[in-house]
Input
Amino acid sequence: GLLLGAATLKNTLLEKDAGDSVEDELELSAVRHRPEGLEQLEAQTRFSRKELQILYRGFKNECPSGVVNEETFKDIYSQFFPQGDASTYAHFLFNAFDTDHNGSVSFEDFVMGLSILLRGTIQEKLNWAFNLYDINKDGYITKEEMLDIMKAIYDMMGKCTYPVLKEETPRQHVEVFFQKMDKNKDGVVTIDEFIDCCQNDENIMRSMHLFENVL
Amino acid sequence: MAAGVAAWLPFARAAAIGWMPVANLPMPVAPTEKNKRQDELIILNVSGRRFETWRNTLDRYPDTLLGSSEKEFFYNEETKEYFFDRDPDVFRSILNFYRTGKLHYPRYECISSYEEELAFFGIIPEIIGDCCYEEYKDRKRENAERLMDDQEDNKDAKLPNMTFRETMWRAFENPHTSTMALVFYYVTGFFIAVSVITNVVETVPCGSSPNQKEVPCGERYTVAFFCMDTACVMIFTVEYLMRLFAAPSRYRFMRSVMSIIDVVAILPYYIGLVMTDNEDVSGAFVTLRVFRVFRIFKFSRHSQGLRILGYTLKSCASELGFLLFSLTMAIIIFATVMFYAEKGSSSSKFTSIPASFWYTIVTMTTLGYGDMVPKTIAGKIFGSICSLSGVLVIALPVPVIVSNFSRIYHQNQRADKRRAQKKARLARIRITKTEGSNAFLHSKRNGLFNEALEFTNSTEEEQRLSKSTSLLESQHHHLLHCLEKTTYKCHIFFYDSLFVFLPLPASLSLSCFYLEAGLQNYPSRSPSLSSQDGVTGTCCSRRSKKHHTPLPNASAPAHMQPLTHTHTHQQGLQELSTIHIQPLSTSRSSLNMRVDDPASLNCQSSQITTAIISIPTPPVTTPEGDAHLPAAPTHQNVVKVSAL
Output
């Protein structure tokens, strides 16, 4: 029974990644991950070498083990929103970044996500946003999913807002959203509807370029 | 926001794109970074050890020295690095704070040096991480206690200008300071003992008349005991009143524990005096006599151990409270159980639950008097459980109290040991310091000579003297000299060699000085110590007006006596009523004159009063001789007072 427990532990904890060395197999307690080489990342993302270096240094500082798990992710993200509860939204964000759905965000995931958000085309950005809203990744945004997202966003604001947050505010916001986006009124928003609608909206287009010079 | 997380701000901003499609309103304009510097490496040179870090790392905490523009003050242009002349080991922790956001306290560092470094770099110690904060606080508390102990020792030192009241208070608090105080201490101790013994013996049955039953001695020898009691109470009253008079803050004294004990000790007597005749309250009077036993607490002034015990109990108040509380709980539970268990048996002593309390207490504390025993089987079972649990409940808080007592006791032992060692330490320090101050005086004299000689334009002496006075020393001397000039005074220094050298400022024709008896601290103007510690002179030189004339003919009578006060001086004409100093003759004696043969001085006048200083330390080798400058025409006068 003990051996079985140890074996399962070993399997769940190990990262099967190209960068792993043999020692990682033997270590049961700490998960370590080394990212792919700088050149590969440079090729895959739109960041320069220097930018990747800066990003990695920041990343590794907060997560010395090389991967971010959901708890740490929530922790880090919550520090930017001290008045409210950012954990729900962080959860959705985490799922959006964790493209291979293995429960942890490695540096590659992180950097790819950032590359899309900061240096991607409008199409890619909108795609990413759709992916964020589509919680179960089935290609459709339902009202419930949108409501969850909306509540998470409003949660980040916290309780002390003006005007005071009411129960039905997120719901109303979702209604407005669906009115705008759901062209064929079938109760769900598909990716094409979404992209179409956003491209026609001036505000949204302008805001997509807002964070371009972040890095 | 923690510093490390600041690195993730770009990510958080990028993720904000997720809100955009949902938003209905236009977004505000993003701030632009004006001068977007590439992150560069900064070199921090701390006493030779080079630390390198990113500039951004340091910028995380802009309210510290390294994070603000304050570090520019330490920038070295040639080597393009920031140089700090501080401890590199402690700097490691400080730099790690910038890197990781957590400040750690290394155990091997001295707490005060660490705090100094933190203060220098502008970091408050409160942000020490939880892992090290407790250790830091413990060390800090220990250090503070130790310093307080040292300070308390210093309180023993007698200040010169103590009023009678202050002297008395000091005598009361520290009996070993003077013989009178010691006598008083022992006398009061004796009387406390006498009083307590009297109280005890009073109740012993002694002798009996054949027809009466035994009477206690108190009733037999009423008069004798009354006289004893009166005498003791007299002494205690006088003592209390004297303490009250001498106390610096009467209100605080009256509130202190010892004074309350004193009052409680003597009050019953007076109350008894007042109401002897009243029959109703005589019962209460008898009760009051019980309070006489509190006199024994007066011994705590005499016994260090008793004080420690009291202090321990005070500091363990919470543990004692817990002990009491848990005992009470257990007693109530077991008393109830025992009562109901024994209810059935006949002729049971457990008549009620409060009656069972007695049994429970006696059992839990493992006394087991046996006056109440359970008879039923259930009662016996519960009784045994009760005694077992009693042992446990009592054993739990006792080690805490014991360890507290041990810590405080050892601390006290350490304080006593340190006090004893301190004297030897101070003596050694004094010796090394006087050698240093000898050198200082020597060079000071040389410095002053240098200046004086400028007047005389004598080059030979100058060459001889301008040897190794460093720039720092000469500037210091110049400063002191300016002060002297300003105040028409000059410095006199006493040190262990009992040699005092008084150079006079060049332009003053008076001999004004005041003696400083600060053996340890030469520049301070700490006035006298007690007679056994050294001579203090006040020197105020009185010169009659006629002595303004050039000095060679002047004779300035002055007495030097061991005084204990310093007078304040007036400007201009000084009051030198107390120093007999004869100006030495105009001839120049050699610079290498030895101090201990005054006879070889070429003095015209005959009196050189020697002040008697009874410093027991061996004389340190004095600087080479003493010299004086030619008196004519510049009115210089060098007066040597040799005290042997």
Notes: The beta strands of chain A are 67-69, 104-106, 140-142, 188-190. Residues 15-19 of chain A have pLDDT under 50 and may be disordered. The longest strand of chain A covers residues 67-69.
